[in-house]
Every structure is written in C-alpha cells, then in structure tokens.
Amino acid sequence: MSGRPVKRSLTLKGHRTSVSLEDEFWQAFRDIAKIKDIPINALAAEIDVSRDPEIGLASAIRVYILNWYRA
C-alpha cells in the first residue's frame, strides 16, 4: 500500500482536470469503470454531476468507490 496520493488527469466536460488519489483508489476506480463498461472519464463525469459542489471531486470519487464495494 503506497499511502501517498498520485495525481492523474481526467477530462470532464471537455476540460482536463487533475485528481489526486491513492494507487489503491485509482485501481478500484479503473475496475469499476471496466465493470460498468465505460471509460474512466465517463465514470468521473457521472460522479462529478451528482456530487455536492462543496465536496471535492477526489473525495466524491473515494466515497463512490466505498459505496460501490459496500453494495
């Protein structure tokens, strides 16, 4: 387990944005996108539009992943 967030770029609404997640979250994020058969950017966009604007995207992704595996 790395523990340190890794910054990667995503494209949302045609614009590049950086998100910092730990390697384990990035892997889970990719796995979920693969299961849903959608690109990771599409999954990020889904999460982005449904999140509270006061919650950061990285936090929203982590919570989404947690909820996915709890279901």
Q: Can you put this structure into words, describing what you see?
A:
- By secondary structure, the protein is of the alpha+beta class.
- The chain contains 3 helices and 2 strands.
- The chain has a two-stranded antiparallel ribbon.
- A hairpin with a 2-residue loop joins strand 1 and strand 2 (15-22).
- Helix 1 (23-36) packs across helix 3.
- The mean pLDDT is 95.
Helix and strand topology:
Layout: E1 5-12, E2 15-22, H1 23-36, H2 40-50, H3 57-70
Antiparallel strand pairs: 1-2
Helix pairs in contact: 1-3
Give the gist of this structure.
By secondary structure, the protein is an alpha+beta fold. The protein has helices at residues 23-36, 40-50, 57-70; strands at 5-12, 15-22.
- Which structural class best describes the helix and strand composition? alpha+beta
Mean pLDDT: 95
Helix content: 40-55%
Silhouette: globular
Q: How far is it from the N-terminal to the C-terminal residue, by CA?
A: 24 Å
Quick one: how many beta strands? 2
The Cα radius of gyration reads 11 Å
Low-confidence stretches: none
**How many helices does DSSP assign?**
3
Our estimate of the beta-strand percent is: 15-25%
- Which sheet architecture does the biggest sheet show? 2 strands, antiparallel
Provide the succession of SSEs. Answer: EEHHH
Which strand order does the major sheet show?
1-2
